[in-house]
Amino acid sequence: MRGEHVVEVTRTFTVGRAPNEVVAYLADFGNATEWDPGTESCEQTTPGPVAVGTRWHNVSSVFGLRTELEYELVRVDPDRVVFTGRNDSADTTDDIAVRQGLAPGTSDITYHAVIDMHGAAKLGAPAAKLAFEKIGHDVEDNLVRILSAERQA
């Protein structure tokens, strides 16, 4: 069982893109500026193409609190993308499973986020749970909209 300082949010939803397209889009965490409502900027800090080990510097604002995290792509498979993020007050894991949807050209996504707060941030964990549930809802809405949009020619 996880402690009270750990916040977990899970969302499962369907988008109108094939799994390979979804994985390719999500593996580039720089795209978080499009789908994560709190992300202000997310710059790749390692050179080269996106692959396991690629890192990003993420600046987010969540309900008026600005935070910076260093994210790393730790797993990318045809059916899963996993990132870890770290700063002085939290360790995060974003584990995204992608499966073929029931309809052709669709994918079922299960997005599981774990935020392990430490230091003084532990005190805010109960309020953070509510905040991250709201963010999880917004992330789901944004990903459905973006990954279901008509492909540009």
Briefly summarize what is shown.
24% of the residues lie in helices and 43% in strands. By secondary structure, the protein is α+β, with helices and mostly antiparallel strands. It has a 7-stranded antiparallel sheet with strand order 1-7-6-5-4-3-2.
Structure write-up:
With 153 residues, the chain is α+β, with helices and mostly antiparallel strands. The protein is built from 3 helices and 7 strands; from the N terminus they run βααββββββα. The chain has one domain (8-148): 2-Layer Sandwich (Alpha-D-Glucose-1,6-Bisphosphate, Chain A, domain 4), CATH 3.30.530. It has helices spanning 19-27, 32-35, 125-148; strands at residues 6-15, 39-44, 55-62, 65-77, 80-86, 90-100, 107-117. The chain starts with 5 loop residues before the first strand and ends in a 5-residue tail after the last helix.
Termini gap: 49 Å
Give a quick account of the main beta sheet: strands, pairing sense, barrel closure.
7 strands, antiparallel
As a percent range, the share of strand residues is 35-45%
The secondary structure category is: alpha+beta
Tell how many strands the DSSP assignment holds: 7
Number of domains: 1
Quick one: CATH class?
Alpha Beta
Query: Per the principal axes of the C-alpha atoms, what is the gross shape?
Result: globular
What's the rounded overall pLDDT mean? Answer: 88
Helical segment count: 3
